[in-house]
Each structure stands twice: as C-alpha cells, then as structure tokens.
Amino acid sequence: MHLRDADKAKDDFINIAAHEFRNPVQSIAISVSLLINKIKDSEQRTLLNVAARNSKKLKTLTQNLLEISKIEGKSLKLNKEKFSFNGLAIDLIKDFEESVLSNSTNLKITYSSSYNDLLVYADKDRICQVITNLIDNSIKFISNEGVISITAEKKKRNGHDNGTQEMVVVSVKDSGAGIDPEIMPRLFTKFTTKSFQGTGLGLYICKNIIEAHGGKIWAKNNNDVKGATFSFSLPLCD
What we know:
- By secondary structure, this protein is of the alpha+beta class.
- Helices cover 46% and strands 23% of the residues.
C-alpha cells in the first residue's frame, strides 16, 4: 500500500513539475528566437544560438515528462485523421534541413518510397513525434558525417479475424555507431541510454505511441554497413 502511494505521489509530482516547466520554457524559447532575428552582432548571435539550442532541449524534456505521465496514467489520447505519409516525411526532412542541418554539409537525410501515395489513419502529430525522435536518436550517434535514410513500404500481416491487414513499414536507417548489444534487450524501456545527450525516454514514448495505433516497433544493427535501423508499422487506410 505504501509503495503504491509513493508511486502515485511520484507520478503526480512529475506531472505537476512538467506542466509548471512548460510555460516558462516556451516563453524563453520564443524570446530567444525573436532576439536572434534582431541582433546583428555575430558574437551575441552565437550566444543566443546556444541559448536557443538549450531551450529546445528543455522543451523536449518537458514534453517527454508530460508524455510519460500520460502513458503511465493510461491517458494517452490519439486524434486520428487520414493523411499522406509521404507528405509528412518530406515536410519533416525539410524542417530538419532548415534547423538542425542548416550549418552541416556532412549529414544528409533522405526519404524514398515505391508508392506515390501512402494514406494512413493515425494521429499525425504523434507519428511526427515518433519520426522526429528516431531521427534525433540517429543524429546523436553519428560523429561527424553520415546519412539517415528513411524508407516506407507496404506489407501485409495476419489480422485477428484470420484475414490480412495492409500495413506501412517505416524504417530509419543510419550510419552511426550502432546499438550497444548490452542495451539491445531493453532498448524500448524507460531510461535506457548510452548517450550523454538524452534521458532514455524517447524510444519508450515511441513504443507506446506506435502500439496505441495497433502497430509494432523494433530495431537492429545493420549487417551490410555500420549503424542501426529502427522500424515501425502502422495500419494503412482501408
């Protein structure tokens, strides 16, 4: 009984703390962004860019804590809609090119699919969150230069009613350091990380989002080249 009470108190604290952090972090991020556009001095802009990067990290941490609170409280909600997966992937890569990769010519992100249109019925923002987490995760383990290749293909799986269901399988393949065999068995659990740049919450959140959609997520080290590939499945629209 005491352990259950303590666990609830911990979850309540995380939820309250995350909500309290969110507003000031958002205000800092907006203020820094506005200042960067006004400041002309290169040294001051460099300092503001440092503040911008770190405010983004704080924002991500706050969002992750809120997601964990929802997952643990069984209150993760999905706002499903029909949308083009190809369009989502292309827009995401453009966002990364304009922000994260804007000062790098040694890191590339590509997208390819054999299908002109892949319509999925899912929570667009949540799927965007999953892909963003996977790309961010790949970038952490690419030291100087490399490629992150995103692909999407159709596959069929056996359904619960002895029929088949068409799925889209999305893979994010990188040329980084690969997954440490020591953490592979618990890769999608909380606080699993070998990187000093993260909390080990991102993949756990991805797993819960994908499973809430009726899909699966998995990972493996590449056999042909260095690096790792993270894949997930989502049901396609009927």
